[in-house]
Amino acid sequence: MRDEYKRSCHDELNWVEIDQLHTATVEISKNCFEYKKLCIGLLGVGAALMIKFSDDPLANLNFLVVVLICLGFWLADGTAFYYQRSIRKSMGRLMFAIAERNDISNYEGKKVDVSVSGAFFNSSMTLYYALFILIGVAWLIHAT
After folding, report:
1. pTM of the shown model
2. pLDDT in the model for residue 106
């Protein structure tokens, strides 16, 4: 039978920090989804405005503006994803420290890898890849 777990002051501080980091991670995750919705919304409104007010709605400048809008949101989303992963890694270190202080030798926390390239090139960025491909194909068709 195991002894009852009693949190030390250090454990309690770590748990508070883990809870705060978890809350921050959830908020960043929500923001990433909002970035995607804003990007699509802005592209829709921007396309309508370009068609309405442009002499040539398929001008190269219009394609460039659309690419820059997508690029800006991709950079913001990738940066948020990077910080989200960094926070998860910090949470893992705190969990491991708690396990170590409480002599839990078989604790295998989830390893979180953090890299800039991994933040910008992952499955959650599929929307931006698809947009870049669609815009690129449309631009090429227009140019030929």
Report:
1. 0.83
2. 83
